[in-house]
Amino acid sequence: MKYAFIDRHRSVWPVSVQCRVLGVSASGYHQHRLRRARIAQRRHLTDEALLGHIRAVHAETRGAYGWPRLWRELLKRGLRVGKQRVQRLMQKHGIRARGRRRFRVATTDSRHDLPIAPNRLERNFLPPRPDTAWSGDITYIATEEGWLFLAVVIDLFSRRVVGWSLQPHMERSLVIDALEMAWQQRRPSGGELLFHSDRGSQYASRDFTRLLDRHGITASMSRRGNCWDNACSETLFGSLKVEWLDGQRFATIREAKDAVLEWLR
Rounded distance, CA 129 to CA 127, Å? Predict the structure, then answer.
């Protein structure tokens, strides 16, 4: 009530004088005015205008966001709208997040006689500092010329991709090149580095094991058939395919490489 009185008489008495007489703070009064302005702005944002913002975010994210993430993105952009309103408009106009395509390629061949390292990481995905725990994995991208395979090395401290390799095959050179890139970029020092992967023949190969030994890196491997032991890599590849690649068709392997590199960088 006091703030409303001050608002009505701003042209008669100075705001500071009214606040002093009425025993309220000037900063509280200005915050009250700001809140009222935001409420008015939200009321004046019509469904048509809000739908335009929703479609813009949906296009920018390539249809990757469902209504909860899209609503949070609108909040970040300063649009104070209710999540039920965003959900209603998206459902009404058929705006929804993309789903994953269902084909699957086996990138892990653990049926071999090569040495298997124990699971030394033990799902400790929050190391205390950079370059103490890396993880690696392989995924695939379809093109009209055939499959393109991506191997990555992730620093679990920052979840940053510190090394990668893109090749049209899954031979051991794919993972060796990714690890060499990570090593050349980071040059880790000052402590033991753990490298975690699945039990695939590429990671268990003698050439890859020798590379780990040469750099003083300790190997760690997931338990058989347990994707949760390497969950960070799985999450990364899920983001790549759902938020970036899904819906795209690549005529050549070169086109797919360019798209993946743009995302990685």
Answer: 6
What b/e readout covers 212-225, taking b as 16+ CB neighbours within 10 angstroms? beeeebebbbbeee
Reference 101, options 151, 140, 56, 59; nearest CA is: 140
Domain interval for residue 41:
2-92
Is the pLDDT reported for residue 165 higher than 80? Answer: yes
Tokens of 246: 């899904």
**216 part of a folded domain:** yes
Q: How many CA atoms lie within 13 A of 56 on its CB side?
A: 9
Instruction: For strands 217-221 and 133-143, give the pairing.
Output: unpaired
The total of structural domains in the chain comes to 2
Q: Among 29-38, 124-133, 155-164, where is mean pLDDT lowest?
A: 29-38
**The Cα angle at residue 240 between residues 221 and 181, in degrees rounded to 5:** 55
Distance CA 191, CA 242 (A): 36
Q: What is the pLDDT of residues 123-155, one digit of tens each?
A: 999 899 999 999 999 999 988 899 999 999 999
Does residue 146 come out as left (phi exceeding 0), alpha (psi in the -120 to 50 range) or beta? left
DSSP 250: -
Question: What distance in Å separates the CA atoms of residue 257 and residue 245, rounded to the nearest whole number?
Answer: 11
Chosen domain end from 92, 125, 160:
92
CA 84 vs CA 67, 88, 91: distances in Å = 9, 6, 10
Counts for the chain of helices (H) and strands (E), in that order: 11, 5
Q: How many residues does the chain have?
A: 265
Are 161 and 81 contained in the same domain? no
